Amino acid sequence: MRMIRFENVCKTYKGDVQALREVSLDIAKGEFVFLVGPSGSGKSTFLKLLLRDEVATAGSVLVAGRDIGRLGAWKVPALRRNIGCVFQDYKLLTNKTVYENVAFALEVIGRPKHIIRTQVPQILDLVGLTKKSDNFPTELSGGEQQRVSIARAFVNRPLILLADEPTGNLDPATTVGIMRLLDRINRTGTTVVMATHDQRIVDAMRRRVMELDHGSLVRDQVRGVYGVGS
Amino acid sequence: MSRLAYFTRETLISLRRNLLMTFAGVMTVSVSLFLFGGILLVSRVVDHGTSKWKHGVELEIFMQVKASRRQIDLVKASLEADTHGGADATVKSYRFFTKEDALKEFKKLFQDEPVLVEATTADALPTSYRVVPRRPELTTTIQKEFEHVPGVKAVNTAAKQVKTLLTATRWIRLAFFLMAGVLLASSLFLIVNTIRLATFARRREIEVMKLVGASNWFVRVPFMAEGLVQGAIGAGFAFGLVYLLKWIITNLLKSRHNGSASLFQPFYASSHDVFVIGSWVLLIGAVIGVAGSMIGLRKFLEA
Questions:
Q1: Residues of chain A with pLDDT under 70
Q2: What contacts B245, CB < 8 A, 6 or more positions away?
Q3: Using CA atoms in the order B251, B255, B256, B259, what is the torsion angle rounded to 10 degrees?
């Protein structure tokens, strides 16, 4: 089953900046995909289009068979409930505890209390932070903060998990832990798309690699490595 | 239920965070709405006192309470003759007020004094004619014609002061409405600003909410409630002040016309007036609050 499909997608920003040029690709349900390329190659735009933060200038972006460019503004929240998102800077709320940060994601989409009470401890157990659930983000290491962020993105069991440089701020040892976690989430059937600069992870994981360069898809390789020439 | 708790909590937190701005917003709303409500109340008082002089009515011919049917009919015949006098006609139109009509008006006038209303019957009140002259200058001519007719107790004319009062209130009302309008606009801007600050203070939360798929309304409601609370509290204060004004006016009018003289004091403000004006004040306050927060939110919630 096809989860994500790009059909000749172009994205041009104001001032004729071409962030994506004629990108076409398919990502199946349950795939793990690395999105690589230098800064400014279009990785972030790619993720923003999937979140409907931006709309393609030409072509169409399909998620679970639906053209999300045609989605009315009021349907965007429903799309985002199916897409979890993790960032390099975690985006945790510093005035809330670990538990509250994760619960917040369910609270604001109107989930009932009893669901929140069972789901949040479960997911904190999955990411291995049960003992830290009453700590504030500032009391955690970078790796732990990223785990909280992943827990928040995954607590609603989305179909897709997007990760934008999730290990960008982490040391190699911590990075391995985060990658294991993402791999585990992928094994539950969740499609994972991860944008990264980190050559070692890509080479070690041996998953599908899509490389963007100046907005064009220059490589799409099953079980690839970071750079062909490197 | 948990959703309601969430909204309440978020609204209160945000109100407290911007206490000073909230205070400024509430104060301007209440001052402007008090100006608005206050002048409406004063206008009502003037309206009550001058209502019978509306639509060109210049004279009131009061019959004796015990005037006979014949006497009443004779006055009517004379008025009729004056109406159809061709070029010499002095009366444009007239209306007969029966004892029952008089009682109705009396009840309206003294609705705040039920004891008095209870004790009064139609029988005790005089019948009267309200007369619209062809031209205002003819008022004295008509007055002289009927003053000494048998059965007529008195002919009242609209005093010059009443007319001055009517013109004056028209201008004062306009001036106050303008002032109230300007102040309302500034209170709107203050609320817009408070909401902008509130969204800025919580931009990370809003970002996360949008990211995890909270609906736009879910993001908006706490801020709208914040604006609504500001507008409503301001309006509540204004309501209180208008009520206080009513109390002052009532006492002022009472002390000026002591005892029985106050019975025929037509200038008054009723609780009903305060209620109607108060409802408008509350409605406008709420609308200002919600409108302010909608404008304040617009920029932040785009995309």
A1: 228-230
A2: B38, B41
A3: 120
| CB half-sphere exposure, A87, CA atoms < 13 A | 11
Whether A171 and chain B come into contact, CB under 8 Å, resolves to no
ipTM higher than the 0.90 cut:
no
A 10 A CB-CB count for B183 gives 19
- Which of B1, B17, B208 should one mutate to test binding to chain A, selecting the residue with the greatest count of A CBs within 10 A? B208
CB contact under 8 A, A108 and B211: no
- Backbone φ and ψ of B93, nearest 5°: -160, 165
Burial class of B269 by CB neighbour count within 10 A (0 to 12, 13 to 18, 19+): buried
Query: Which string of b and e fits A52-72 if b means at least 16 CB within 10 Å?
Result: bbbebeebebbbbeeebbebe
Share of chain B above pLDDT 90, in %: 13
Contact B161, B267 (CB under 8 A): no
Q: Do A78 and B211 touch (CB under 8 A)?
A: no
Sign of CA dihedral A61, A62, A63, A69: positive
C-alpha closest to that of B52 among B117, B112, B129, B118: B129
Distances in Å between the alpha carbon of A185 and those of A13, A150, A163, A191? Answer: 34, 10, 12, 9
Q: How many CB atoms lie within 10 A of CB B153?
A: 14
CB atoms within 10 A of CB A87: 18
Token readout for B224 is: 């709208």
Whole-model pTM: value is 0.70
CA angle A39, A146, B212 (to 5 degrees): 85
For residue B256, name the pLDDT band (cuts at 50, 70, 90): low
Are A93 and B205 inside 8 Å of each other by CB?
Answer: yes
Enter the DSSP assignment of A140.
Answer: S
